[in-house]
Amino acid sequence: MQDWLAEWHAEVLPLRRTFGFEVLGPWVSDDEDLFVWILGYDGQDGWDAADAAYYQSQERKSMSPDPARHLAKTEQWMLQAPA
Questions:
Q1: Which of 24, 56, 66, 68 has a CA that sits 20 to 30 A from residue 5's CA?
Q2: Rounded average pLDDT over 4-30
Q3: What pLDDT, on a 0 to 100 scale, did the predictor assign at position 30?
Q4: Is residue 28 exposed (0-12), middle (13-18) or buried (19+ Cβ within 10 Å)?
Q5: Burial status of residue 16 (CB atoms within 10 A of its CB: 0-12, 13-18, 19 or more)
Q6: Does the structure show a pLDDT above 90 at 12?
Q7: Which of 33, 38, 40 is nearest to 5 (CA)?
Q8: How far is CA 6 from the centre of its chain?
Q9: Is 3 exposed, middle or buried (0-12, 13-18, 19+ CB in 10 A)?
Q10: CA-to-CA distance for 62 and 20, rounded, in angstroms?
């Protein structure tokens, strides 16, 4: 977890912000070995396009080694504030 957190803070977080994403919070559950973060995006091109641009960017592709190697499983949920 500590290796993931170091790379997330140094590489993933700044690049996500460069692509216009807002990080609303990262959390860690040491008991579950779990990392959760809420990532927001409010650009005109929409989430899917912005997320694809992030992953297809040369900056993301050039992260070596790939920080995702630390992740055994990922899940993604699309959330919205209640009315």
A1: 56
A2: 95
A3: 86
A4: middle
A5: buried
A6: yes
A7: 33
A8: 13
A9: exposed
A10: 19
List phi, psi (to 5°) of 39.
-120, 125
Q: Is the pLDDT of residue 70 over 90?
A: yes
- For tokens 């091109």, the residue is 45
Q: Are 70 and 37 in contact (CB under 8 A)?
A: no
Pick from 23, 20, 9, 24: which is nearest to 49 by CA? 20
Residue with tokens 């500590």: 2
Residues 12 and 67: beta-carbon distance below 8 Å: yes
Q: What is the pLDDT of residues 21-62, one digit of tens each?
A: 999 999 999 899 999 999 999 999 999 999 999 999 999 999
Place of tokens 């994403």: 21
Give the position of tokens 């927001």.
40
Tokens of 24: 């609303």
